[in-house]
Amino acid sequence: MTKKTLNRDEIMELLPHRDPFLHIDRIVDYDLGVSIIAEKDINLDEPYFKGHFPGQPIVPGVIIIEAMAQAGGVLGHLTVGDIKPKPIYYLVGVEKARFRFPIHPGDNIKFTVNVHRIIKGMWRYGCIAEVRGKTSVSATIMCAPSDIRL
User: Fold this and answer.
1) Given a cut of 60, is residue 1 above it in pLDDT?
2) Given CA atoms 118, 33, 12, 96 in this order, what sign does their dihedral have?
3) Could you give the residue ranges of the DSSP H alpha helices within 15-142?
4) CA nearest neighbour of 76 among 143, 8, 147, 22
5) Model pTM?
6) How open is the CA angle 10-129-97, to the nearest 5 degrees?
7) Catalytic residue, candidates 17, 52, 77, 104
8) How far apart, in whole angstroms, are the C-alpha atoms of residue 88 and residue 91?
C-alpha cells in the first residue's frame, strides 16, 4: 500500500519553498496525476498578520492562491517522480478566483486540488479552500515547470 500522507519535512523535499513562504503544513491524501488534499493551520504568528490587518487579522487571498499552487506543485513532483534536474513549478495563471468569506487565525484550511488537464508539462487545476466544511476560496490555477517556454 502506498503512503498517501506527507509531513512538512517531506513537503520541503519536493518544494523549494521555506518559511515564511511555505503555506501548506501537510498532505493528507493524493492520487497521482489526479488530485491532492493539503492542510494549513492558521496561527496568529503568521508574518503577514502584522500588516493584514492589525487588530483584525485576515489571511491574504494571494496567500491562499499560493498555497493552492504549492499543493499542485507537490502533486506534480509526486506524479513525475524523481527526475533530474528537478523542476520548479511556477504559478503561471489564475482564473475564476472567488473569495466567499475571510479566513482567520485559529482556522484550519483544507485545500482540495484536482487536475483538469496536463498539456505540454503545464498543469491546470481546479482548487477549493475549505474552512469547517465550507468553501472559502475557489479558483482555477495553472502551473508550469521552470524549463517550459510560455
Assistant:
1) no
2) positive
3) 61-80
4) 143
5) 0.94
6) 120
7) 52
8) 10
CA distances from 124 to 2, 117, 132 (A): 25, 5, 26
The owner of cell 534536474 is 85
Terminal-to-terminal C-alpha distance of the chain? 38
Structural domains of the chain, with CATH:
8-145 (3.10.129.10)
* Separation between Cα atoms, residue 69 and residue 19, nearest integer Å: 16
Residue with grid cell 490555477, as numbered in its chain: 141
The residues that bridge with 89 in the sheet, in sequence order, are 145
> How far is Cα of residue 114 from the mean position of the Cα atoms in its chain?
11
Q: How far apart are CA 128 and CA 113, in angstroms?
A: 7
Q: Would you say residue 6 has pLDDT above 70? A: yes
Q: Give the SS3 label for residue 23.
A: coil
Task: Report whether the peptide linkage leading into residue 85 is cis, meaning its omega lies within 30 degrees of zero.
Answer: yes
Cell representation of residue 79? 506524479
Query: Active-site residue 52, yes or no?
Result: yes
Checking if the pLDDT of 45 tops 50, the result is yes
Say which range, 39-48, 71-80, 83-92, has the weakest mean pLDDT.
83-92
